[in-house]
Amino acid sequence: MRRRASGDRGVSLVELLVAVAVLGAVLVASFDALLAVAGANRDQERVVTARQDLRMAMRLLGKDVRGATAVLAPPSGPEAPGSLTLVLPGPAVVRWRLDGAAGLVRETLAGAGGPVSATRVVLAGATLPAGTPLFTYLDAGGRQLDPGAIDPARLAACVQRVRVSVALPAPAGERPPVASTDHSLRARDPAVPCDPVPSSALPGQAYAAAVAATAPLGSWRLGEPSGVLSAANSGSAGSVLDGIWEPAVARSDGVFAGDGAARFPGGPVPPYVDLGTAAPLAGTHPGWSVAAWVRPDADHPQEQGTLVRKGVGQDGFALTVHPEGWFAAQVGLSGGGRAVATAPPGTVRPRQWSFLVATYDGSHLRLYANGVPVASQAQAGTVDLGAVVTRTVIGATSTRERPFVGAVDELAVWTRALSAAEVTALYRAAG
Residue 155's closest CA among 66, 73, 95? Predict the structure, then answer.
């Protein structure tokens, strides 16, 4: 047996108790930390599951709205912001409402006012965003309407879209973000007039009417409020060309006072509007035009910024702005070629709104700035917008490259060439 060395007094009982206490405190702290992590993970899983349920509910609600032939006037009183009554083919009447106890409820009505023949809770725990109605009524131009100020007999002619806004589930202690989507109803009867408010009361209404008169395939006013996930198309292609924000829209003041525009801040993961792969923006056409109001930031990156692009390489089309203050356009042609035109430097000024237009008529690609022609390039051919599978994106390329930094408003696309007179008329309509 080894003798204890001189001065080696061993571990005293007090020291042993202190060590055990310290070890116990460490174990308790570690256990508490593990519990906190597990709780956070459970909270995150709850949020993810709740948001998946929300997306399913919004798809079902959107299907009802898109299939509706009319919207009935909402009830008056506190229930109005959380109630939507739709007439579906059949005919059938359904009412969506927010029940504070049950959540989002879908009811099938025997008539316009009831009685209820079937009730289904679609989303438990749904809540209204603070200060935002669950349902907002929009006209064909995407402007908000007040159903209470419209004759119920004419409401169906006025309401062309319904915006649904809900509070997304969020982790404990965080403010729930707001998500909104727009859904278009079926085409209305043009014989039924709609004039709920004077045109002068709506910002940019004269310009919107001038654009509509030219029958664009796609027209995105881009005035949706912050948090909205969709960019409504008021062009002839309808909701098939509605855009989806990735991520949600950032709002900026628009070219028209009191109206909004889309804000593209750039960054490592720049946001854009995805218009998808819809057939109207594909195939061959006799001509093509694109128009947009743009306001680049002064600190624009030293590379081209993409205002809108369809496809990659030479196919599809693109409208881009460059740091030196010039802009360019290109459009694909049958046989694999393309027409390209470039405006002079200084055409586009930072922090100022500019109205940019590109048109191609089968022989020339022409560029206009603020209603004035600034460039023309001769190139014969037939427009080829590429395959259906290639995406169209506003604000960047589909791979988030070459993002535009600034604000974009009132973007429109035509599958024909606008005339010089039409371009001038659009610019003048903006006032």
Answer: 73
Dig out the tokens for 181 from the structure. 């989507």
How distant, in Å, are the alpha carbons of 72, 136, 144, 156, 223 from that of 139? Answer: 14, 10, 7, 10, 13
Residue 109 three-state SS: strand
Contacts 24+ apart (CB under 8 A), 15-22: none
Taking only the tens of pLDDT, the chain with its 431 residues reads 444 444 555 656 666 665 666 666 656 555 555 545 445 556 567 666 766 777 777 778 878 887 877 777 665 444 445 678 887 776 678 888 877 777 788 888 765 555 677 888 887 766 666 656 777 777 766 677 766 666 555 666 677 778 777 776 666 666 666 666 777 776 555 555 565 544 444 557 788 889 989 999 999 988 776 666 678 788 888 778 888 887 766 778 899 887 888 889 888 888 888 888 888 888 999 999 999 999 998 765 557 789 999 986 677 999 999 888 899 999 999 988 899 999 999 999 999 999 999 999 999 999 999 999 999 999 999 999 988 778 899 998 888 888 999 999 999 999 999 999 999 999 999 98
Topology, domain 202-431: Jelly Rolls (2.60.120)
User: Taking a C-beta distance cutoff of 8 angstroms, is the pair 272, 301 a contact?
Assistant: no
User: In the chain, what are the domain boundaries?
Assistant: 202-431
CA 61 to chain CA mean position, Å: 18
Question: 3-class SS at 16?
Answer: helix
* Of 104, 114, 160, the residue nearest 137 (C-alpha): 160
189, exposed or middle or buried, with CB in 10 Å at 0-12, 13-18, 19+? exposed
Note whether 317 and 339 are within 8 A (CB). no
Residue 126 CA to residue 124 CA, distance in Å, equals 6
Q: Which residues pair with 251 in a beta bridge?
A: 262
List the structure tokens of 110: 């025997």
Distance CA(147)–CA(157), nearest Å, equals: 12
Farthest-apart Cα atoms in the chain, separation? 111
Q: Please give the DSSP secondary-structure letter assigned to residue 407.
A: E
Q: Are residues 76 and 83 in contact, defined by beta-carbon separation less than 8 angstroms?
A: no
- 33: how many CB neighbours lie within 10 A of its CB? 10
As a whole number of angstroms, the distance between CA 72 and CA 4 comes to 96
